[in-house]
Amino acid sequence: MLERIMEAVRESSKIILEADNIKKTASSKLGHANFVTKYDKRVQQELFERLLKILPEAAFMGEEEVCKRYRGEGYLFVVDPIDGTTNFIKGYRASTVSVGLLKNGEPVLGVVYNPYRDEMFTAEKGQGAYLNGQPIHVSQETLSDSLVLFGTSPYYEELWSRSFDLAQVLFSHSLDVRRSGSATIDLCDVACGRAEVYFELRLSPWDYAAGSLIVEEAGGYVRGSEGEHLQFEHPQGVIACGGGISMDALLQIMERVE
């Protein structure tokens, strides 16, 4: 099934690579800099059709209005057709297609594909994590030798100040900070050891359903930004780290930043 889902994701991503006049197709959604293009909708519809042929009994929850209903029993595909839509509109070439599969509310399979770099990250529960078929593992560096990735929660103005305050504090404890504009890229970069920490104070489930499993199967840790376990029914903050960093220490730092 994983191979078939990977193929569905790869085929659907051709829509991204072949897109033109992207900016002209963009419209705004609720929240600052929250955009959708006709290509987001086309990729999601393509995935909807392909994935449900693979697993007809599954429900489908996608970002772009095919169905947003969470189902805690049985199988549920959680899909972000283009994670990094603003990057996509601007031609920044840092966007992914992300598909997570939940069973009874828990992630059992994740696929994140960056078509610009031809990087396919995959994980199955209990089977490890992979990049283009090769095993990946999180870094074992400590916080002082780490790169910190962060998201700005751009749709939620009330979180802007705390996001940048946290980035500054973690910058002072680490080598440097980075901002890609794609939660899935950041989570996968932690999973393969390119960076050691990622945080964002509010994400939707399709932003982390696949990437969180990939991090955990690569030996890393993922929690809600308040220390809670991840859930996939409504938005929450997310923090991820590699094997050489204490999650409890990170959460204590976050608690001190108002």
Please tell me about this protein's structure.
- By secondary structure, the protein is α+β, with helices and mostly antiparallel strands.
- The protein folds into two domains: 134 residues, 2-Layer Sandwich (Fructose-1,6-Bisphosphatase, Chain A, domain 1), CATH 3.30.540; 114 residues, D-Maltodextrin-Binding Protein, domain 2 (3-Layer(aba) Sandwich).
- It contains seven helices and 14 strands.
- A seven-stranded mixed β-sheet has the order 3-4-5-6-7-8-9, with helices on both faces.
- Helix 1 runs antiparallel to helix 2 and helix 5 runs parallel beside helix 6.
- The protein is globular.
Q: Record the strand order, biggest sheet.
A: 3-4-5-6-7-8-9
Helicity level, as a percent range? 25-40%
Write the CATH homologous superfamily of the largest domain: Fructose-1,6-Bisphosphatase, subunit A, domain 1
β-strand number:
14
* Number of structurally distinct domains: 2
